[in-house]
Design goal:
It comes from Vogesella indigofera. By secondary structure, the chain is mainly alpha-helical. The protein has one domain. It has nine helices and no strands. Helix 1 crosses helix 3. The chain starts with a helix and ends in a 6-residue tail after the last helix.
Length: 152
């Protein structure tokens, strides 16, 4: 699934440039991805797109401290929770985007939740919203795609 999401980030600078689901599925199959991997990635992306309707807009209006629930603590390692808080504290994620990221991480199977997948999920949340990313933070997140910095 993550290879498909990384491909989408690299192939489409603007999420609006992505073809409809069926056409995108055919394009991904032609690029050599397996059907199950394509389906999982597109389902995950559909869930992300549904969150873009303003589901978490109220989070941006608040000024409180975010505590992780028992389920979030159990499924998201301290390293991942630290990444989320770091991205928010450094202006890479708004509170609403933080909630979208947590939602999308919890939508993954436990064995697929890792620091690199969390970085990719953060990039996908920002990509889906057309959000800008601070350059130094973006470089670190982009390492999740290739394992090395890709920005100059």
């Amino acid at each position: 699934m993550f290879d498909v999401l990384a491909y989408l980030l690299e192939e489409f600078n603007d999420p609006a440039a992505c073809p409809e689901r069926d056409d995108l599925g055919r394009q991904l199959a032609a690029a050599g991805f397996e059907n199950e991997e394509i389906s999982d990635a597109l389902d995950w992306l559909d869930g992300l797109n549904q969150l873009n309707d303003g589901s978490y807009d109220g989070a941006d209006a608040g000024s409180g401290f975010r505590c992780f629930s028992e389920q979030e603590n159990a499924r998201l390692s301290g390293e991942i929770r630290g990444l989320i808080l770091f991205l928010e504290a450094n202006g890479a994620l708004s509170p609403a985007q933080r909630e979208m990221l947590i939602d999308r991480l919890l939508a993954m199977p436990d064995d697929e939740i890792s620091l690199p997948s969390a970085k990719l999920a953060a990039l996908m949340v920002l990509w889906a919203q057309g959000a800008e990313l601070p350059i130094l933070l973006g470089e670190d997140l982009l390492c999740a795609l290739h394992g090395e910095p890709t920005m100059q």
